[in-house]
Design brief:
Distance between the termini: 8 Å
CATH architecture of the largest domain: 3-Layer(bba) Sandwich
Number of strands: 20
CATH class of the largest domain: Alpha Beta
Shape: globular
Structural class: alpha/beta
Strand content: 15-25%
Largest sheet: 7 strands, mixed
CATH superfamily of the largest domain: FAD/NAD(P)-binding domain
CATH topology of the largest domain: FAD/NAD(P)-binding domain
Number of domains: 3
Length: about 450
């Protein structure tokens, strides 16, 4: 790929990965991103003197591609992977319980955790074991799995509503961004087989101890600049067209390339609305699928329009600052409560001394998307008090809601047929993004894998 010109459209994890790979292969790379920062859907923002992440993104030990990217960016030290899978589970009026894996080989490593899980009856625990073994027997290459919902499959395997809510949705919601009842069996089976049943340590959870800006966006800017990639932040790609030598990317934004130190400066460039055109031999479209469809439709036609069929699923995050510590766990799941997962982000955010900042992550949050901040506060502060008795005496110093309307594609049955690979019918035009056919649902790992795949196609 030496001396070949490549334009990467989109500065999320897929675009970052593709740009780094292409530059490493000797290409002359320009990355354009409409925002004044990198990181895509994983970013940080300042509010009331705190550094907040828009959402709580976790990963697993088996997410090798993502962890390798962190090492490549030099920010792996800002993350932490559990030495052993351990999920504290909170329920109203109950003592905390812990789902913790054992040291036996998979799948026996989860036997002890299920045997002690108080939120299921003894017969429900036995049924859960049988269902887990059934998941292991599914053939990942069986295309009919994507025509069935995970919820229907669980029901046929003896899993009632209580077991689904107390166990299966603990994993389905944060990984698929849908409850089991609405999710594709194919994607659910992949998640459970890969993350929990393929190896004893595969599902150990990784956390970002620094903010997402510190861990992803800022080091990515440095790494791309060091690799010789030209960054144009605040630059919107508006049209793709064929040219005699390959492709043209038409857009507008900062006329001059934005240096990493100018990424958040709205005045960067001589004319922030200047129309521009980039000529290139190859282009990687690494945008969210709805934006990608609009950009690609003039060139690809129906295959681009079909991307809209992937739909979207929202995520809402609540940021709650208490005037005192109210939660002992660094993170926890909720059962029998609207609180799905909560994370202690006090240190990362730089919260004032004596205060505690909890982030509540709500996946598949279609109902919450329509709630006002006041309504969210009325619903979730009492729910947190039910889980955290010390919160009843604490004062809430700050309550903020962040919403990602199209956080991920909708991982429903029928999804597989709509997810394209990196190759398109236009020479030199390739696709990347967690919505492409990586095998993974919309995750950090899937996004990075898609960037590698796009660069590999161009290298060939």
């Amino acid at each position: 790929m030496s001396a070949r010109r490549v334009v990467v459209i989109g500065g999320g994890l897929a675009g970052i990965t593709a740009a780094l790979d292409c530059a490493a292969l000797g290409a002359s790379v320009t990355l354009v991103e409409v925002r004044r920062r990198l990181g895509g859907a994983a970013y940080s923002f300042a509010r009331e003197g705190l550094q907040m992440d828009n959402g709580q993104h976790v990963f697993l030990r088996c997410c090798v591609a993502y962890r390798t990217l962190l090492a490549r960016l030099g920010s792996e030290s800002l993350t932490f992977v559990q030495p052993r899978l351990e999920i504290p589970v909170l329920a109203p009026g109950c003592e905390p319980t812990v789902l913790r894996r054992g040291s036996l080989p998979a799948p026996a490593h989860l036997a002890g955790a299920l045997a002690r899980y108080r939120h299921l009856s003894f017969s429900e625990r036995l049924g859960a074991v049988r269902a887990a073994l059934g998941l292991m027997r599914l053939d990942p290459s069986d295309q009919t799995l994507d025509q069935v919902s995970f919820g229907d499959w669980l029901a046929r395997h003896g899993q009632g509503p209580r077991a689904v809510a107390a166990l299966w949705d603990l994993i389905a919601l944060p990984t698929l961004n849908l409850p089991a009842a609405e999710a594709s069996l194919a994607l659910a089976a992949f998640v459970f087989r890969t993350g929990l049943l393929s190896g004893a340590d595969a599902g150990d959870i990784g956390f970002h101890q620094g903010t997402l800006g510190e861990t992803l966006g800022e080091p990515a800017e440095r790494a791309l600049r060091d690799a010789g990639v030209e960054l144009r932040l605040g630059w919107r790609a508006e049209r793709l067209a064929r040219s005699a030598n390959g492709l043209e990317v038409h857009g507008r934004g900062a006329h001059n390339p934005v240096d990493a130190g100018e990424a958040d400066d709205a005045s960067a460039g001589e004319d922030p609305q200047a129309p521009d055109e980039l000529s290139t031999e190859a282009a990687v479209v690494a945008l969210p699928h709805v934006r990608a469809a609009a950009l690609l439709e003039p060139l690809l036609g129906e295959p681009a329009r079909a991307l809209r069929g992937l739909g979207s699923s929202p995520i809402v995050n609540l940021h709650v600052v208490y005037d005192r510590p109210v939660c002992e766990q660094p993170f926890a799941a909720g059962v029998g409560t609207p609180v799905q997962y909560l994370f202690d982000r006090t240190a990362a955010a730089g919260a004032p001394a004596g205060c505690q900042y909890l982030a509540v992550s709500l996946s598949g949050a279609e109902r919450e998307m329509g709630m006002s901040v006041d309504r969210l506060r009325e619903r979730y502060l009492p729910a947190l008090e039910e889980l955290l008795p010390r919160a009843r005496q604490a004062n809430v110093e700050l309550f903020v809601a962040t919403r990602e309307h199209a956080a991920t594609f909708r991982a429903a049955p029928g999804t597989a047929a709509l997810r394209p690979g990196p190759v398109t019918s236009v020479p030199g035009l390739v696709l990347a993004g967690a919505w492409t056919d990586t095998g993974w649902p919309a995750t950090l790992e899937g996004a990075v894998l898609s960037g590698h795949a796009a660069a590999e196609v161009l290298a060939r």
